[in-house]
Amino acid sequence: GAVVSQHPSWVICKSGTSVKIECRSLDFQATTMFWYRQFPKQSLMLMATSNEGSKATYEQGVEKDKFLINHASLTLSTLTVTSAHPEDSSFYICSLLPGQGAQEQYFGPGTRLTVT
Amino acid sequence: QKEVEQNSGPLSVPEGAIASLNCTYSDRGSQSFFWYRQYSGKSPELIMFIYSNGDKEDGRFTAQLNKASQYVSLLIRDSQPSDSATYLCAVKIQGAQKLVFGQGTRLTINP
């Protein structure tokens, strides 16, 4: 399977600040990456689909101006949580499709965000 | 009705027995079906996927798909305590890139 890294693995920030999370594909060129959020004891919630070179597609109810996604290259996508609030505290996970025609998604290790 | 439904559990199975996890889906256009395992505090890891009706085996894991009945299951043979985790069923609709996840079933294997 594909190897995906995320940085940082955990972060604590103050309310009102912004946090950037990086997702890297280490062994595939990923034209499509996904960003998920997971609250405790809940399932994954897709936030947006990120395609290299184009604007991300956000799921209904996800504020695109608050969660900025930049798919800068075939191996890097970033999620910036702007003006973070305590309710944004969650486990953020990226995933990717390892190449054209791939069906299965491979997940990064996740980033745990705590907003104080 | 949720698009992908799983029994949230917890499901307890004795070590060495077969664990059976079930998932139903509502969209008949669903094309691909995935099982992920998620340990507490970790991200999901892909166990296996299935596209065609019938069984697909990979080691101790067998995925079963019945498109007419709109269900997919995962069997774990010779269950081990290390299999204790939350198992997520995910479905991909034809023409779409994204996966739709069920709420997950928490499985506990008792030594």
Describe it.
The complex is a heterodimer of chains A (116) and B (111). Chain A is mainly β and 116 residues long. Chain A contains no helices and eleven strands. Chain A has strands spanning 4-7, 10-13, 19-25, 32-38, 45-51, 57-58, 67-73, 76-81, 90-96, 106-107, 111-115. In chain A, strands 2, 4, 5, 6, 9, 10 and 11 form a seven-stranded mixed sheet that branches. Chain A has a four-stranded antiparallel sheet with strand order 1-3-8-7, with no helix packed on it. In chain A, a hairpin with a 2-residue loop joins strand 7 and strand 8 (76-81). Chain B has 111 residues and is mainly beta. Chain B has no helices and eleven strands. Chain B has strands at 4-6, 11-14, 19-25, 30-38, 45-50, 54-58, 61-66, 71-76, 85-93, 99-101, 105-110. In chain B, the strands form two sheets. In chain B, strands 2, 4, 5, 9, 10 and 11 form a six-stranded mixed sheet that branches. In chain B, strands 1-3-8-7-6 form a five-stranded antiparallel sheet, with no helix packed on it. Chain B is globular and about 45 Å long. The relative contact order of chain B is 0.35. The mean pLDDT of chain B is 94. The A-B interface holds A 1, 32, 34, 42-44, 46, 49, 91, 93, 97, 103-110 and B 32, 34, 36, 42-46, 49, 51, 88, 92, 97-99, 101-104.
Concise overview:
The complex is a heterodimer of chains A (about 120) and B (about 110). Chain A has about 120 residues and is mainly beta.
Proportion of residues in β-strands of chain A: over 45%
Largest interface, C-beta closer than 8 angstroms, per-chain residues? A-B, 19 and 19 residues
- The strand count of chain A comes to 11
Radius of gyration of CA atoms of chain A, rounded to a whole number: 13 Å
